[in-house]
Amino acid sequence: MSESKLAGQFFDAAIGLLERVRDEEGARIAEAGTVIAEAVAAGHRLFAFGAGHSSLPAQDVVYRAGGLALMNFLAVPGTAGVDVMPATLGSALERVDGLAGAVLDSSPASEGDVLVVISLSGRNALPVEMAMNARALGLKVIGVTSVAYATETKSRHVSGTFLKDHCDIVLDSKIAVGDAELTADGIDAPFAPASTVVTSAIMQAVMAAAAGELAARGVEPPLLRSGNVDGGHEWNGRVMREYGDRIFFRH
User: DSSP class of residue 142?
Assistant: First the structure.
């Protein structure tokens, strides 16, 4: 099989998943956008969390040109990237009981805020406890996960539950267990994961829905512009001054 054919198959697989999510999750994505818009309009804060590669879609909506300035990354040290050494430590930390509570207790998150928890499998202690503890604090929790894992794998949390069991809204990425879209003769393991593409698209769709809902309510969405276009820095400076008490990625 030619390399170009495999590349094309990956694009087809990713497009198919995006179409499924658009058609099957559209109503819940709109609902999530409304929850975020309501929090913004009411003066609350927005947070996104993900560990390992699930942190990438969370980071993609923070301090983002064309994105909501109020979205903050809720960082758990050692879990947000492959720069931690060894990289396997990040995976191990996802299974540590109590870590989520410690992070939330020392964060600015409080009642009425919104937390988006992203976890492909939703089975590890960290995302499960993050959602549980956030709801106990009075936050609205939006979970972005593959629901298939809840029926095809076992939870690693002591409760036996998954992320999806502790969310106000669940957005299903439709990613198959194992997160690999392709197989081929001569290649022993499945390959070509699509979860980052699909989950990032879900996050941007939610942000778009939130911006539209804010506009419909007569509230100007606090959006950032690219710093690489004329006037971008001035625009962003104004937005950050106006909403500075809800933005935690700046001094």
Answer: E
